[in-house]
Amino acid sequence: MADDGEAIQAATVRERPGLLYIVNSLNPGGTERLVIEMGVAFSGEYRVCVICLDEPGAWAAELRRRGVPVYCLWRQSGLDLTMPAKIACLAHAYRVSILHAHQCTPWFYAALSRLFRRSSRLLLEEHGRFYPEADRGLRRLVNRALIIPLSHRFVAVSADVRGRLERYEGLNPARTEIIYNGVEAAAALSGEERLRLRRELGLDPEAFVVGTVGRFDPIKNLPMLVAALARARAGERRIRGLLIGDGPEFGAIQALIARSGLTDAVRLTGFRADARRLVQCLDLFVLASFSEGTSMALLEAMAAGVPAAVTAVGGNPEVVLAGLSGWVVPSENTAVLADVMLAAARDPGLCARYARAGRHRFEEHFTFPRMIDRYRALYRSMGASRAQECA
């Protein structure tokens, strides 16, 4: 944990209510970046603090630099029943009004912390689900008997996630609000800047660049993207690949690219802090995931005016409207995805229409200020509910 002086100093500040975000870690990922951006956004209205259950993660230092304290509880493997008391202790030190748990493991421990400190209100926000999911009846039973009664509000980042919370966690969908993720649009690159960046990445001006941004994780099904690239290039040699990110599957994807004969055609950048700029180098953004909540990388591509092709899983079809603002393809259907790549490379007019429609859809539904306004209203309603209970 951070030094005691920081906690004591924070506890003496009384003018703003306390808001405690609870997350597994702050290693690079969509959920983690959202925690950082929400923490900074609300730091003027709340005394924001972040708890990492497992490890601080690579981005903890950034959040601390931006004025938001981060504590780590170093959770042990299995069921660690020291977590609830530790969370309650920090909630007391910060006089926390709202516990905002990101994903289900933090929710479980945050709910149990209310057995020690009942005054905080608890919100679950579920970002995405495991793939494949295991159906555990005992888990639903414990949730319904104990965890849900200790909670106050529930948020899913897509209708698909809301349905999975009902099926696998036992939540009542009528009590679960949908708040889509939102992102800030990056400053648009000039044509000259875009060409320079593409040259630095080894991409010719005439290349049709297909790619993605994100963590190299099995759930992202990057082998499908690589296989589709190989198949599409057989019909159109201008197609090149750009994969931006890092993660546990990086080495395996690098080896697959080599086995597929794509070493000279697909560029792997590794983790890039400027990924939001690099996505503008793409001509087609692809998300081949097995499962998704609301992909931050997808939203950033739409905001940048890059047309998108996504698999018909999770929240993807809620973000990209098939045939209106992009392509939606069956999961694990390499042939269809390759055909989409070819169609996009050969029809710049269609790409331009989808890019405009995607940008418009982003501006209507997925901006960062829109998301923050929804959570601000939710936090205030939770505070009002607590005041009514105490009256």
What does this structure look like?
The chain is an alpha/beta fold and 391 residues long. The chain folds into two domains: 4-182 and 368-390, Rossmann fold, CATH 3.40.50; 191-365, 3-Layer(aba) Sandwich (Rossmann fold). It contains 16 helices and 13 strands. The strands form two sheets. Strands 3-2-1-4-5-6-7 form a seven-stranded parallel beta sheet, sandwiched between helices. It has a six-stranded parallel beta sheet with strand order 10-9-8-11-12-13, sandwiched between helices. Helix 4 packs across helix 5 and helix 9 crosses helix 14 (334-346). The longest helix has 23 residues, at 368-390. The radius of gyration is 22 Å and the shape is elongated. The two termini are 35 Å apart.
Terminal-residue CA separation? 35 Å
H and E order: HEHEHEHEHEHEHEHEHEHEHEHEHEHHH
Oligomer: single chain
Q: Report the sheet-strand fraction.
A: 15-25%
Could you say which overall geometry the principal axes of the C-alpha atoms support?
elongated
The overall pLDDT average reads 94
Low-confidence stretches: 1-5, 7-13
State the CATH superfamily name of the largest domain: Glycogen Phosphorylase B
* Helicity, as a percent range: 40-55%
DSSP summary: helix tally: 16
Radius of gyration from CA coordinates: 22 Å
Biggest beta sheet attributes: 7 strands, parallel
Domain count, please report it: 2
Proper CATH architecture of the largest domain: 3-Layer(aba) Sandwich
Structural class: alpha/beta
* Number of beta-strand segments: 13
Strand order, main sheet: write it out: 3-2-1-4-5-6-7
CATH class of the largest domain equals Alpha Beta
